[in-house]
Each structure stands twice: as structure tokens, then as C-alpha cells.
Design brief:
alpha+beta, five-stranded antiparallel sheet, globular
Length: 208
């Protein structure tokens, strides 16, 4: 899969964004969005903010799971205690494929189609206060399935993918808290630290 990660402050302004590709099932970590998809991704992210505004009143969890999708592009969200939004768009494709879109006559994967949303109506999410034993068990489960046909790299809706994204968000959240505690930064200010970007990419390589 190709991933587009964005942090949006309470004023609906992006403060950080980056792209990376899957490192599972032989992936090389390189994002393979077409230029059209790159232009579309920020609009999809912004459209999903309305779902976060609705969901935050129906749950006390920070990880909101998969909240929206456009054709084959899926968006997962994480809401911090300060109402800063973490958004992850994931677009599935076979690893290490050519990013050039297929011709119209091809039956290959196309990331575009009629808009449908995945607003679930009701939300059930796992508690983020899980024990270290549970976290270790989750990581072991991820390691055991990442190489299978239903693994993270080609199944954006599987429980394994949901858990991998949750762990990714939690690790990025810890790094983000340290970054915004800087006297030269804050939740509303863009995160420019190359160290923070490196930790985001490292978390993506570790879990996704």
C-alpha cells in the first residue's frame, strides 16, 4: 500500500504531511501514488474531517479506526486530547508496482470511482490503555500475518491492518507530544523537525 499521513490542527490547517510505502511483503517503502492521486489526497483528507467532528461525540477513544473511503482509498483517524487530528490515507496496490495508472480498457486496479463513505453509524473501538502483554501479543500477531495473502500490504480493512495502524498512530502520538512541547513549537504550529519526520517514517516501516 501507499500511505499519505497528515496532521491537522484545530483550525483545520495541516501542520505536517508525508508519504511512504509499505514495507511488508517485500515492499520497498516507496509510495506509488499517481500524480492525480497526489493532487486528490489532500481533498479527501479535508472531506473526512466532518466525520471526525461527528464521531468525537460518540466515543471516548482516541483511535477512531477507518472513518471514510473514496473508491479504493481508505482513511483512518486518530484524535488527540487537544483535538489535533492524525489522518492516514492508505491506497492498496501490489508492492513495488509501477505508479503509472492503467489504460481505461484495462481491468487492473483503478483508485478512482463513484464516491461512497464508510461512516459506520455506530463506533466500537478497542481501549488504548491495553497492557504491555496485549501490545506484545498484537505485535506478534502482526508479524505472523504480514506475510500472508490477507496481510497488511494488500488488505486495508482487515483486523490486522486496523491493529497495525493503531500501533502506528500511538508511536507517532508519543513522538508528536515531545515535538510540540518544544518552546519553539506548539499544537497549532507546523512540525518542521527532521527528527520527528524520521520517527514517523520509522513507525511506518515498523508497522505498515
Amino acid at each position: 500500500m501507499s500511505y499519505y499521513f497528515c496532521i491537522v490542527n484545530t483550525r483545520d490547517q495541516p501542520t505536517f504531511e508525508t508519504e511512504f510505502g509499505t514495507s511488508k511483503q517485500g515492499g520497498d517503502g516507496i509510495p506509488r501514488f499517481t500524480q492525480e492521486a497526489r493532487n486528490l489526497n489532500p481533498f479527501l483528507m479535508h472531506a473526512s474531517l466532518d466525520y471526525i467532528d461527528e464521531l468525537q461525540w460518540h466515543t471516548n477513544q482516541m483511535y477512531l479506526k477507518r472513518i471514510d473511503h473514496f473508491s479504493s482509498s481508505h482513511i483512518s483517524a486518530f484524535l488527540t486530547p487537544t483535538s489535533t487530528r492524525f489522518l492516514l490515507l492508505h491506497l492498496p496496490h501490489p508492492p513495488n508496482t509501477d505508479p503509472t495508472p492503467p489504460p481505461k480498457s484495462s481491468t487492473s486496479f483503478s483508485p478512482y470511482g463513484p464516491y461512497t463513505n464508510a461512516f459506520p453509524g455506530t463506533l466500537t473501538t478497542p481501549s488504548l490503555s491495553s497492557s504491555s502483554t496485549t501490545t506484545s501479543s498484537s505485535r506478534s500477531s502482526l508479524a505472523s500475518v504480514s506475510g500472508g495473502s490477507g496481510g497488511i500490504a494488500n488488505n486495508p480493512t482487515s483486523p490486522q491492518t486496523e491493529e497495525a495502524i493503531r500501533l502506528f498512530f500511538m508511536e507517532v502520538f508519543e513522538a508528536w507530544v515531545k515535538a510540540v512541547m518544544s518552546p519553539f513549537g506548539g499544537p497549532q504550529v507546523g512540525v518542521q523537525s527532521p527528527v520527528f519526520k524520521g520517527r514517523v517514517l520509522a513507525a511506518g516501516k515498523k508497522y505498515l
